[in-house]
Amino acid sequence: MRALVLHPIRSRGGTRDPEDALAEAVSLATALDLDVVAAATVPLPRARAGQLFGKGKVEELGKRIEEEEVGLVIIDGPLSPVQQRNLEKIWKAKVLDRTGLILEIFGDRAQTREGVLQVELAHLSYQKSRLVRSWTHLERQRGGFGFLGGPGETQIEADRRALDERIDRIKQQLAKVVRTRGQHRAARTRLAYPVVALVGYTNAGKSTLFNRLTGSGVLAKDMLFATLDPTMRAIALPRAKRAILSDTVGFISDLPHQLVAAFRATLEEVLEADLILHVRDIAHPETEIQAENVRSILAELGVSDESQAAMIEVWNKIDALDPVRAETVAAIAAREPRVHVISARTGQGVPALLDAIAADLAEPVEDETLHLRFDQGRERAWLFDHKLVQAEHATEDGYDVDVRWTDRERTRYRLL
Q1: How far apart are CA 310 and CA 291, in angstroms?
Q2: How far apart are CA 309 and CA 129, in angstroms?
Q3: Pairing with 35, which of 98, 130, 362, 393 sits 20 to 30 Å away (CA)?
Q4: Which of 137, 4, 136 is nearest to 71 (CA)?
Q5: How far is CA 80 from CA 11, 45, 238, 278, 292, in A?
Q6: Which residue ranges does the chain devote to CATH 3.40.50.11060?
Q7: Closest CA to 14 of 303, 352, 292
């Protein structure tokens, strides 16, 4: 479909550069395989309640839409239901705002049943918020007039009730997903493997880093929201340690609140992680703004200050910078103990990052003496297999075993 992308520049302005914001909006449209025939920033001194833009600008854009044979207009910002309906009527083209576009991308990318349910929940919540009196079928369906006949029910009320029922059914299904994820987390606790979660702005290189660390073949493309469904793999760390690495959906500025709510079950993996790697595209002109967006969404999800302390910032794509800029960035990072500069594509800086992850996940060890009966051969073998035994002494009814282990290893032993 031929699409026109418009980024309104509001009078109050914002922290983002309009051209960078427009480029991101075009990337979003491209991610949906749309044929973007034109893109432009549009000054917006004052938002109009009925059409967003002023009458003259609406007519001007209408001529361009007709000349370019545009079938879809993307407004990179929020639109009220009334504004969307009126613009579609005037321009005789489909109109999507930023939230609607992102929802479409998520709907196109979801692969797992969980992802499909989460996207559908977000879609339905969005649709419910956009039910407006705009067509003749929204008139009263039943009931008399005034108070005597009862309030009756309008079509819009029937639609809202149907959406509510569907939303409730999906929430019930997602509740099962939450329970299943909880069981998976409990199983990982029994395995005594710490969890490391990758978070970051979309297209920051999380999946490329995930593939390099795990040897997996997760889709990693220079495209917004290339990864939607979460993926988890084991990774080997220095000193023979192992961990589980979780790749999550990328964040983005103005992420629809419907999506944050719908994907909460998936993003709980971040809340439960032992360590969070915040991957940043350090070569992007808006890397600081992107980083702040990620922190804001993490805070909305409930990542506490304590959790944020267990976070490493990974400044990725250092290879995309010119040598002078790369040297400056490396010098800045060297002064920050919780920052590592890497290139997930070339592998530069990755060994040092793995060392930092291993050090962060290192746990204090304690010495303890266990008494095992002769019939506890399975427990004794487990201790030896995991190289925890320091010494062993035979007794009349079994063995006294001196072990050196972490709390996690002790927990895993007790779950045998």
Answers
A1: 16
A2: 37
A3: 130
A4: 4
A5: 18, 17, 53, 34, 27
A6: 2-105
A7: 292
Percent helix, strand and coil across the chain, each to the nearest 5: 45, 25, 30
Q: How far is CA 15 from CA 20, 44, 204, 330, in A?
A: 11, 16, 20, 25
Report which residue type is found at 5.
Answer: V
Closest CA to 312 of 352, 363, 348: 352
- How crowded is the C-beta side of 334, counted as CA atoms within 13 Å? 6
For 90-112, write each residue's pLDDT tens digit: 999 999 999 888 888 877 777 77
Pairing outcome for strands 241-247 and 231-237: antiparallel
Specify which residues 377 forms β-bridges with: none
Handedness of CA 163, 166, 168, 171 (dihedral sign): negative
Whether residue 280 contacts residue 293, with contact meaning beta carbons closer than 8 Å, is answered with no
For 163, the token pair is: 């959406």
Place of tokens 């493309």: 221
Q: Which residues pair with 241 in a beta bridge?
A: 237
What is the pTM for the complete model shown?
A: 0.71
Q: 2-105: what CATH class?
A: alpha beta
- 195-200/311-316 β-pairing: unpaired
Domain 183-361 coded CATH 3.40.50.11270: no
Distance between terminal CA atoms of the chain?
58
84: exposed, middle or buried (Cβ count in 10 Å: 0-12, 13-18, 19+): buried
Q: In a 10 Å sphere around its CB, with 0-12 CB exposed, 13-18 middle and 19+ buried, how is residue 112 labelled?
A: middle
Using one digit for the tens of pLDDT, what is the confidence trace for 123-178?
A: 888 888 776 544 333 344 434 333 333 444 566 677 778 888 988 998 888 788 76
